[in-house]
Amino acid sequence: MLIDLGGIQRVWRILTGPNFMSPLFWDICIITTYLVINILDLVWMHKGDEEKVRKLSYVALPVAILVHSVTAWIFGLQIARAWYTAIMAPIFVASAMDSGLALLLIALVALDRAGIAKLDGDLLASLAKLLATFICVAAFFIGCELLTMAYPGAHEAVALQEMLTGATAPFFWFEIICGLLVPFLVLASAKRREKTALVMVASALVVLGVAAKRVWLLFTSFIHPNIYGGAGITTGTATAQADPTAMWAATGSYAPTLPEVVIFIGVVSLGVLAFIVLSKKLVAKAE
User: Fold this and answer.
1) pLDDT computed for residue 221 by the predictor
2) What contacts 79, CB < 8 A, 6 or more positions away?
3) What is the pLDDT of residues 71-124, one digit of tens each?
4) How confident is the model at residue 279 (pLDDT cuts 50, 70, 90)?
């Protein structure tokens, strides 16, 4: 979030002059809180203090829900993007539940195959059944969003057309068919839930489907810029910076700059490094 804000050298202004009406400020507060909770959770788990971990879990769950809800509100409170509605928060939370559980299943199977931890077959089947339930919840919320867009008089025909048959259609249909329908059909059967390979495939499809959802959910609203009654959109090019009269245009294009690419690689690398270091410490503690 600090990277998204830009001008990181002025981040101290968040403390001296916070804007409580800004969803970005809400996001910074809730993500920082969640980070502190995760650090405490790891420290207390490492020390074997189960009672503190248990008490912390009562706070961790609502904060985790708020993490995804606040992110959704950043979209839902955009006046210029009419089809980002109040249901965005439930959609984000549902996506987090099914993709998070799917990743957990993949991780548990991987740890079992690596001989690090033993995975019980009944536990796998139970989690797979829960994943099928989460998939249904996510599908319901997406159906509600589509109904809101498609209902006559909703004035969202352009966005809906782009999502169903336009530029973002491949991502939308991949999520509906491969990310929701196929995994549900696989996990709806008790016999199929007992087969580890099928559970792994269904879980991987759920994760890929949620990734595809992020693409169509975000970019569908940006295909046709909403510049009615305004000067246009800023191009951000070197020409626009040199000549203020060339700053505004009816359409524009974007490509990541070298600093943005380097920052992205740095953040991902830092996350991978942290995961490797913490994993080694936790495995050593378990042994």
Assistant:
1) 76
2) none
3) 888 888 877 666 677 788 999 999 999 999 999 999 889 888 888 778 888 889
4) confident
251 DSSP 8-state letter? S
SS3 letters across the chain: CHHHHCCHHHCCHHHHCCCCCCHHHHHHHHHHHHHHHHHHHHHHHHHCCHHHHHHHHHHHHHHHHHHHHHHHHHHHCCCCCCCCCCCHHHHHHHHHHHHHHHHHHHHHHHHHHCCCCCCCHHHHHHHHHHHHHHHHHHHHHHHHHHHHHHCCCCCCHHHHHHHHHCCCHHHHHHHHHHHHHHHHHHHCCHHHHCCHHHHHHHHHHHHHHHHHHHHHHHHHHHCCCCCCCCCCEECCCHHHHHCHHHCEECCCCCCCCHHHHHHHHHHHHHHHHHHHHHHHHHHHHHC
Reading the block at residue 138, the tokens are 């996510």
β partners of residue 234: 248
Q: Say how many C-beta atoms besides its own lie within 10 A of residue 188's C-beta.
A: 14
Rounded to a whole number of angstroms, the distance between the first and last alpha carbons of the chain is 36
Give me the amino acid identity at 78. Q
